[in-house]
Fold this protein.
Amino acid sequence: MRRGRSARRRLAAIVAAGIVLGALAGTAGPALAQAVQSVVRAEPGDGEAARARLFMRLYQAADETQAREIEGEIWRHWLEAPDEEAASLMNEALRLRGVWDLAGARAVLDRLTEARPGWAEAWNQRATIRFMQDDTEGSLLDIEETLRREPKHFGAMAGQAIILMRQGRFETAQSILKWAVEIHPFLAERSMLIEQPTGERI
């Protein structure tokens, strides 16, 4: 029990220091950075089949380098807009976020989630903005909307786990993070899983 509390305190200190908040702030690494350079309209085709193949490849990735390449493909898939108007709005939101106009980005994403409520990434990007505005409860609500539409969104899960850990809800956060790592074995935030003395993770 004492070791478990000590591990939680160490993890809380890491989260409080902001070391692992990059994923939720949209800076999860080169894979995401490349994916968000330009949002495009999705092309007709076997979207669900392609998605399933991507996640299977990610699960079977041989090493971190291969996993990062597949992760980038998945982010590009998530960022494929349902139509040109949605693509334009998302690009504008990302541009505004890039110059730290969070209020402007939030306003655009408010329009986007209202106009295209079925697009999971619209909710995920608004969750990111709300987190950056210190609206953690609003961010959690948008993450829930994201996961309703894309249950395997490991980026949203990582963000959700980070917020819950900041709130001291470690067991729930660890459960969510373990599921995210099941989906993406090389997820950057896997280092946040707490090892028990037996070698098992909580």
About this structure: The chain has one domain: 2-192. The CA atoms of residues 15 and 166 lie 6 Å apart. The radius of gyration is 17 Å.
